[in-house]
Design a protein that fits this description.
2 strands; 662 residues; single chain; mainly alpha
Length: 662
């Protein structure tokens, strides 16, 4: 029996210089960061204030930091793919061998969907939703922390595959039979499955946490139809997570049983059904599209209402449209495989449902436009991202409705037309929404605004780069180019791919502008301080707190009397200044104590995941035991909360009130 299972020195790809250089750069970057933190003596602060924090705001910020790091990692894969396809025409083979190219496009999709887009949206929800609800934290703070660190575990396992072993060569969907042991005998598919199983458990716990929080923990007076639209989209998103992610977990579990214990759920030679994997995957997969886009819809609703200086047009219709999308998203999954041979009735039903689900989305677009109509629109960076989204997403939506027609889908299925459509809605919707939310809530999180000039430069590079990078792919799809091609013989395609590569470089310039924006903003933060807590003249309750908010969010829980609770309170204070000046009564507040549970559990999850990938069974058992002991220690803890004295709360609140008055 080999003590280290399948793991040996042969797992490190010394014969692949590109992989080794990329691995060395990644390890060097991590080492430099760790070294800098050590030299500066920041470890006690990081451990106390961030790594063990159960504060929803800090957890939200850490989610967003993970997402931004993975944006860089996933985009590096995109640049490599675009560069390869730009040069690999005719007799030229390019610089990436086929097996490496396969890993790159698989890692790109996996990272961007599971480890960039989802953490970014979950981070924004973590930060803003409890503040908008007028409460002090989520329902289960420590569970929230565990969710974050399990997501980080999946990210770490995915990146370990770059240096030790390989990643899946199956695409981000990992369809059988290609993902079965017979055709993928290496550890790549195992890295994919265990990374997503571990992070998926964290995502499911997030869904349970936020559904409970929104349904049961609103401020006094905040009925469902007084919640901000972002809270409604967060509720719909997390209902989808709770309903859809168990399907993905079960599907991956069946594929793992096929690979590890010779089950035959999806293997054709033993009467398994590979098509059933595709069915189950997209039962999760299309709700996942709305898990990504619905929070972005909420961000745009908040941004457009705030910077138009008026209430959101058609609030109730916006809520109805959100919940309609939540329900209808489970009735469209089969449009992902119209070509499987289903009957015309089945294809027709799913085609019609796909067209119908575009209606509530159209309602939202018109509501945003009508909100801006007649308002005094301030064209800040978040508004630019919102306008860019509306144009870009509508184009992507129209191509989606086009592909909802089964005969059209038969022609463009598995072509670059599909790739262009998917990126059209994910980049133009989710990514634009994430960056709009990042710019919008940044001053609330850190107490100073981001630089507008570099923010505008980033937006225009992203918008221009997107159209250069993906509009040519629509044309290539209609010309017959399929996706995931490492090399092609038709040289007529190359000019289109050269333009797409130029577009990717322009997007890279946009990412660089974002990094510069952050550095410039930090250095000049003295000029952009947010001393009032309300830099945008906001409408919802998060803007009533200091920037950054204290751990307890609100010194006294607000009483809500209508939609746009903070806007109403500001108008009331102006109309009745004597009432606003009345003394507030402060009481001690109990807050949950910091905990290392999430960090330690995630460590053992990585150990178990890595061991299961390489068949190191004793180490997998130790990792599972360590995680169990960590959870038991937390369950039997003596002290759950720490009390914040009323004097401290009063001091900070009075200082904030004085700053607002000034």
């Amino acid at each position: 029996m080999n003590l280290f299972g399948k793991l040996s020195w042969a797992a490190i790809p010394f014969d692949q210089p590109i992989v080794m250089i990329a691995s060395a750069l990644m390890i060097l970057a991590v080492a430099l960061v760790l070294g800098w933190v050590t030299l500066k003596g920041h470890w006690p602060y990081l451990w106390r204030e961030w790594l063990t924090s159960v504060d929803h705001k800090r957890i939200g910020v850490m989610y967003c930091v993970l997402a931004l790091i993975m944006l860089l990692r996933g985009f590096s894969d995109a640049i490599m793919m675009r560069a390869q396809q730009a040069v690999a025409a005719g007799g030229a083979q390019g610089y990436l061998p086929p097996e490496h190219f396969d890993q790159i496009f698989s890692a790109h999709g996996t990272i961007m969907i599971f480890f960039m887009a989802m953490p970014f949206m979950i981070g924004l929800m973590n930060f803003a939703v409890p503040l908008q609800l007028g409460i002090r934290d989520v329902a289960f703070p420590t569970l929230n922390q565990v969710s974050l660190w399990l997501t980080a575990s999946g990210i770490l396992l995915t990146n370990i595959s770059l240096a030790v072993g390989e990643f899946a060569k199956t695409g981000w969907v990992a369809y059988p039979p290609l993902s079965e042991l017979q055709f993928s005998p290496g550890v790549g598919v195992d890295y994919y499955l265990w990374a997503l199983q571990i992070s998926g458990v964290g995502t499911l716990m997030t869904g349970i946490n936020f559904v409970t929080t929104i349904l049961k923990m609103r401020a006094p007076g905040m009925g469902y139809l007084r919640m901000p639209v972002f809270c409604w989209t967060a509720l719909a998103t997390n209902l989808l997570i709770v309903a859809a992610f168990p399907v993905l977990t079960a599907t991956f579990a069946m594929l793992l049983l096929d690979r590890y214990l010779d089950f035959h759920f999806f293997t054709v030679e033993a009467q398994g059904n590979a098509m059933m994997y595709v069915n189950l995957f997209w039962v999760w997969g299309h709700p996942e599209v709305y898990i990504l886009i619905l929070p972005a819809f909420g961000v745009f609703s908040e941004v457009i209402a705030t910077f138009s200086g008026k209430p959101l047009f058609g609030y109730r219709s916006m809520v109805a449209a959100t919940m309609a999308i939540c329900v209808l998203s489970f009735l469209v999954w089969l449009h992902h495989f119209f070509t499987m041979g289903a009957s015309a009735d089945v294809n027709g039903f799913f085609g019609i449902m796909t067209m119908i689900i575009a209606v509530p989305t159209g309602v939202k677009v018109f509501n945003w436009l009508f909100t801006m109509w007649g308002g005094r629109v301030r064209f800040t960076v978040p508004v630019l991202w919102s306008l860019g989204f509306m144009v870009t997403f509508v184009i992507g939506g129209m191509t989606g409705v086009l592909m909802a027609v089964p005969p059209v889908d038969f022609q463009v299925h598995n072509s670059l037309f599909l790739v262009a459509h998917f990126h059209n809605v994910i980049i133009g919707g989710t990514v634009f929404g994430a960056i709009a939310g990042y710019n919008y809530w940044f001053p609330k999180a850190f107490g100073f605004k981001l630089d507008e000039r570099w923010g505008r430069a980033s937006f225009w590079c992203w918008l221009t780069g997107f159209y250069l990078a993906f509009m040519p792919l629509y044309a290539l799809g209609l010309l017959g180019m399929t996706r995931r091609m490492q090399h092609y013989d038709n040289s007529d395609w190359q000019p289109w791919l050269l333009v797409a590569a130029i577009g990717a470089v322009v997007i890279l310039a946009g990412i660089v502008c974002q990094l510069i924006q952050l550095v410039v903003s930090i250095r000049a933060r003295g000029r952009h301080l947010d001393v009032t807590g309300d830099p945008w003249n906001g409408r919802t309750l998060e803007w009533s707190t200091p920037s950054p908010p204290p751990a307890w969010n609100f010194a006294v829980l607000p009483s809500v009397t209508g939609i746009d609770a903070y806007w109403n309170s500001k108008q009331s204070a102006r109309a009745h200044p004597h009432d606003a000046a009345q003394a507030r009564e402060y009481e001690p507040i109990e807050m949950p104590k910091n905990s290392a549970t999430g960090f330690i559990t995630a460590f053992f999850a990585v150990v178990s995941g890595f061991a299961l990938i390489w068949h190191i069974w004793w180490l997998a058992a130790l990792g599972a035991l360590g995680a169990l002991v960590t959870i038991l220690v937390f369950a039997f803890r003596d002290e759950e909360e720490v009390e914040i004295p009323a004097e401290r709360i009063a001091q900070l609140d009075r200082r904030h009130q004085a700053e607002v008055t000034l």
